[in-house]
Design goal:
mainly alpha; about 80% helix; Spermidine/putrescine transport system permease protein; membrane; MetI-like_sf
Amino acid sequence: MTANAFRRQSFAGLPAGSGGALPALTLVGLFFIVPVVALLLRSVTDPEPGLQNYAALFGSGTYARVFLNTFLVAAVVTGVTIVVAFPVAWMLAIMPPALGSIVFGIIILSMWTNLLTRTYAWMVLLQRTGVINRALMGLGVIHEPLPLINNLTGVTIGMVYIMLPFMILPLVGTLRAIDPMTLRAAALCGASPLQAFRRILLPLSLPGIAAGGLMVFVMSLGYFVTPALLGGTSNMMLAEMIAQTMQSLLNWGLGSAAAFVLLVVTMVLYAIQLRMVGAKRLAGGL
């Protein structure tokens, strides 16, 4: 080993050729690790050193309901998003490339629209005198306006609309990788469309469902704008509670503890997903 190669390998304790990653590692340290450490320290030192903030967080029935509602909303949004996104992703996977590119572009374009603007648009559509209620009443489907806002229904509709692209994108990639001849072979063997979907298409698309579902669930856990505008006080989520605790009550210690718990839950879910995907790849390789 030459002297120059040895210096490259021993530079800052990193392997040779990894010096180019130092700027990225520095940014991660400054903008992720340092704030997380500061958040943790504040949660155990404000207003005084100790774990009293975590004790208050887990020992209060009010905060427990907020945690439960957060996971409930995230689970409902994830489930509905998967059900709505799957047929859209399948349509994109089988339609002609030219038409598929147009539809795909429309879906991507919706992600570029301002989040607050889209949420306010749903507020207008879902209110008692909104377009949806007026259309249903005009068609004779209902006789009085439905409560579509300031409840779980409004939060679910608004968040599913926002989360759809994040579910469709990984699903499209997974579905396009499935050989269409597999489904044709199942049909030739006498399988009904439902059997082919349940025994072939659904199992083969599980990696995309898992990736998109985890992304949607994790993002839903920390969502603030849409639940705050479309939900009510009975549907408060953890992100809204953290904002109120810090901004209104000025209880930075308790808010930091809640934020750190949310971060830990997110990282645990991500680690579980990585472990499951790694196990499946290992099993597939064997």
